[in-house]
Specification:
219 residues; alpha/beta; Glycerol-3-phosphate (1)-acyltransferase; five-stranded mixed beta sheet; two-stranded parallel ribbon
Length: 219
């Protein structure tokens, strides 16, 4: 697989190739694709979250550059700010639901970008999937972008929340078929505000259900 050089920065390209090599050698990574992924236009990648390895792992399996979320405080340091921007990171507050963060997400999507979101909102403490938060539903409804459910396997065992150092465990990532969710998008344009909030959570729950159903083609 080759990264599209027309859409990535030189920093992103270098890090992408390094991650591909690291995951192949140290973690014997396997990439699985349940359906062809969109090559153009806005896309939301929605993945489970078990490790710090998850963002680069998900991105390393795609030829399109991925926009990532990063805590806004990191951008206050000049060196981090330089590299994070070139890694296509979007600054968000701790909860990822602030107005500036949402605007950044929508700006990337409106520009035809692909962005990675974690419906659970945080890393799992025990390797099990967590309930989805409504925030991803808001992003999906407001943006109109298709959603690709993604599931990572083995990253909790390789570098879970309580691990001090990564361990050489086999990891994998499975990209599912695009979800449109047009029925809930249509309803959200005409329903009451209380119902819209319910729709955000329903969207998040549907996405999490699809993530849960993903299985790798091989281990």
């Amino acid at each position: 697989m080759k990264l599209d050089p027309r859409k990535s920065t030189w920093v992103y390209a270098i890090v992408w190739h390094l991650c591909r090599a690291l995951f192949k050698v140290f973690f014997r990574v396997r990439y699985h694709y349940g359906a062809p992924l969109p090559l153009e236009g806005p896309v939301i990648l929605a993945a489970n979250h078990a490790s710090y390895l998850d963002p680069p792992l998900v991105g390393s399996g795609l030829a399109r550059p991925v926009n990532y979320l990063a805590r806004d405080t990191l951008f206050k340091h000049a060196a981090f700010n330089f590299f994070l921007k070139r890694l296509l990171c979007v600054p968000v507050d701790r909860d990822g639901a602030g107005a500036a963060g949402l605007k950044g997400i929508f700006d990337r999507l409106s520009g035809g970008g692909m962005i990675l979101l974690f419906p659970e909102g945080t890393r799992t403490p025990d390797g099990k999937l967590l309930p989805a938060r409504a925030g991803v539903g808001l992003a999906v409804i407001k943006s109109g972008a298709p959603v690709i459910p993604v599931r990572v396997f083995g990253t909790f065992e390789a570098y879970g929340r309580n691990a001090r150092f990564p361990r050489p465990r086999r990891i994998a990532v499975k990209y599912g078929a695009p979800m449109r969710l047009d029925d809930l998008r249509d309803e959200a344009t005409t329903c009451s505000k209380p119902r819209v909030k319910e729709i955000y959570q329903e969207v998040a729950d549907r996405i999490m259900s699809q993530i849960s159903a993903l299985r790798p083609d091989e281990q």
